[in-house]
Amino acid sequence: MRQPWAVIVSILLIALAVILQVTGINRMELFGARPDLPIVVAFCIASFSRPAGGAAAGFASGLLLGALSGATLAHYVFSQTIVGFLLGKTSYEERDTRAGVLIIVLSSLACGVILMFLAPRRDITGSIQAT
């Protein structure tokens, strides 16, 4: 993402996703799980940018989500930055829609697993269910 407008649009999309997540989406359930919109938006941006852009998108998402949810920032920032960077590494490959969706789902799962080990809950079943 070398164009300044692309960076501005990315930041606005991540900020909007975090605001929507904190104000209401975190209370919804989809197939027994809660959707995490900032991760999906950040990872979609990361999958179309370079590794540094992916890491920046993950960092911004983790920072905003951690700040607005009142959680520990380091856990969110670290897990999303690492996965965003790795997604940026795969942006050079051509992929179809199904592969892109699968990559985003697997990346979200990887981020949840990293977060589960960085900030474990008291009961392991709660961590696994949240992931």
Please render the helix and strand layout as text.
Blueprint: H1 4-23, H2 37-47, H3 51-69, H4 73-89, H5 97-118, H6 124-130
Helix pairs in contact: 1-2, 1-3, 2-3, 2-4, 2-5, 3-4, 4-5
What does this structure look like?
The protein is mostly helical. Helices cover 73% and strands 0% of the residues. The chain is built from six helices and no strands. Helix 2 (37-47) packs across helix 5. The model has no long low-confidence stretch (mean pLDDT 78).
* Unreliable spans: none
- What is the oligomer described by this structure? single chain
- What average pLDDT do the residues reach? 78
Structural classification: mainly alpha
Between the first and last Cα atoms, what is the distance in angstroms?
30 Å
The dominant shape is: globular
